[in-house]
UniProtKB/TrEMBL annotation:
PANTHER family referenced in this protein's UniProt entry, alphabetically: DUDULIN-RELATED, F420-DEPENDENT NADP REDUCTASE
Name of the molecule in the record: NADPH-dependent F420 reductase
Gene Ontology BP annotations: copper ion import; NADPH regeneration
Domain Pyrroline-5-carboxylate reductase catalytic N-terminal: 23-114
Gene Ontology molecular function terms on file: coenzyme F420 binding; cupric reductase (NADH) activity; ferric-chelate reductase (NADPH) activity; NADP binding; oxidoreductase activity, acting on NAD(P)H
Keywords: Oxidoreductase
Species this protein is from: Mangrovactinospora gilvigrisea
A cellular component annotation (GO) from this entry: plasma membrane
Keyword ATP-binding belongs to the record: no
InterPro entries for the chain: NAD(P)-bd_dom_sf, NpdG, P5C_Rdtase_cat_N, STEAP_metalloreductase
Amino acid sequence: MTTSEKPPVKDPWELPDVSGLVVGVLGGTGPQGRGLAARLAAAGQRVVIGSRAAERAAAAAEEIGHGAVGADNAECARRSDAVIVAVPWEGHGELLAALREELAGKLVINCVNPLGFDKRGAYALKPADGSAAEQAAALLPESRVTAAFHHISAVLMLDGGVGEIPTDVLVLGEKRADTDAVQALAARIPGMRGVFAGRLRNAHQVEALVANLISVNRRYKAHAGLRVTDI
């Protein structure tokens, strides 16, 4: 290539092969985590379900099948290449601080939504760090923190009669290699498409949108997701 030639532009839909990654799911016994674990395991991904109690994780893994295994949270983090964080917001910071060593060097995919609830419904909380994903990045400086999988219905993921989940997954992160890998993981689940949606500083509005989707679902008795048009 001469100095006057420009390097080729990378195809935004050219994604890496992530089929060999071991994916851990912290909070894998809760609805969101169990749903993601079930869908990824069914797609052929090697999955480790994490929980505070190894026995609960093992029971969830047996229920999911497809080769999924269970472990306590620390062992789950150690055994995995990529780790989905699907724990309740209330315990998010404490858990990640405790797993800083185990998660060092790992791809961390945060799907935690800081929400509050009152008699008027769900509303978004604003964490001191800006978002759950930014809190994770601050607590895990040696990890590669991304954010994704916020807007997917756990009910649909856990419904064995639903073959495909036609929805887009907004993916945020600081490095393209990391967000490409998360997009590729999303694409392993039939019907899903990962879409890059910016850096982690934009995670708050993505997390907060879940409160709107809860309102949509309650009004229309649905399990709504998102679609990004014209791409």
